[in-house]
Every structure is written in C-alpha cells, then in structure tokens.
Amino acid sequence: MNHTPFPEHLDQILSQSVREATSLESALQREGAALASRDLDELNAAVADKQSRVQALEALTRQQTELLQREGYETNAHGMDCVLRDWDEEGVLRPVWDRLVEVMSHCHRLNQVNGGVVETSRRRVDQALHILRGEESRTELYDTRGRAFSASSSRPITKA
Questions:
Q1: Three-state secondary structure along 99-152?
Q2: How many domains does the chain have?
Q3: What's the rounded Cα separation, in Å, for the pair 57 and 19?
Q4: What is the pLDDT of residues 6-65, one digit of tens each?
Q5: Does an H or E element contain 154, and which?
Q6: Distances (CA, A) of 136 to 133, 147, 150
Q7: Tell me: the pLDDT tens digits for 112-147?
Q8: Which residues form a coiled coil (predicted)?
C-alpha cells in the first residue's frame, strides 16, 4: 500500500500519465507516417508501441480512480475539478492535469485520422476485389438491427 500523501500520489500518477500519453502521441504519429508510406514494419512497430502505451495508461487510470474513490471524490471531470479545488492551493497539479487532457485529446484526434486512413484503404481494396470478381454496383442496406450489409448483383468477370 502506498503511504504517500494524497496530492503527491496523485501528482505521481498524473505525471506518469503525461509521459505515457506523450509516448502514445508519438506512436500514433509514427503509425500515421507508416500508413502514409505503406511501411508495414514501421506500422507493426508503431501499433505494438501504441498498444503498450494504452495498457500503461489504463493501469494508471485505474490507480487514479482508486485514489480518488478512496478520498471520496467522483471519478470524472467534476471529481478532478473538486480535487484540484481542494488540494491544489499551490497550483502544482492543475498544469499537469491540463497537459494530460491536452495530450489525450490530441491522441484521440490522431487515432481518428489514422482510423480514417485505414478505412479508406480497406474500401479501396474492397472495391478492387468487387471489380475483379465481376460484381456490379453494391448497394449498402441495413438490417433490422441497424447494421450495414451490402447487396450486390454479380456477374463473373469472364461474362463482362
């Protein structure tokens, strides 16, 4: 059990979270560059690094959640605002928290961009496969659960 006083323990967790988030940001940037250059080896390395950083951040988030709960705070943004109001008279924790929020927001945007690149590439491959199979236009429909599926009429390429 950690006997470090609450604000110092929280500072340690937040500071480590910022370091991990910054490393995640770097991994996402590397992933984006690898996607753009179609460098499979670098992509695999960046994805492995990204997964490692996400796991570390999840563990730190669990520690932060446990710490806040133990002190009687909510484990959301309002709870952190209350913690900072109650415990950060010297203004030490607020800049670390703000930096973590900023970096994680940037990570979210990078991940969305990378996901968009992957989805666009997947669609191009899918279209090429449909052409090679001799399939005509694809119509995207939705089932009763709202899930998309494609209805296509096909004609073998040999009959085209």
A1: HHHHHHHHHHHHHHHHHHHHHHHHHHHHHHHHHHHCEEEEEEEECCCCCEEEEE
A2: 1
A3: 10
A4: 999 999 999 999 999 999 999 999 999 999 999 999 999 999 999 999 999 999 999 999
A5: strand 148-154
A6: 9, 22, 12
A7: 999 988 887 778 777 877 777 777 655 566 667 767
A8: 33-60
CA dihedral 28, 32, 34, 40 (to 10 degrees): 70
CB-CB contact of 9 with 2 (8 Å): yes
Q: Which domain holds residue 78?
A: 6-135
For residues 107 and 57, give the distance between their C-alpha atoms in angstroms, rounded to a whole number.
12
pLDDT tens digits, 77-100: 999 999 999 999 999 999 999 999
Identify the CATH number of the domain in which residue 63 sits: 1.20.58.300
The single residue listed with the structure tokens 């670390």 is 96
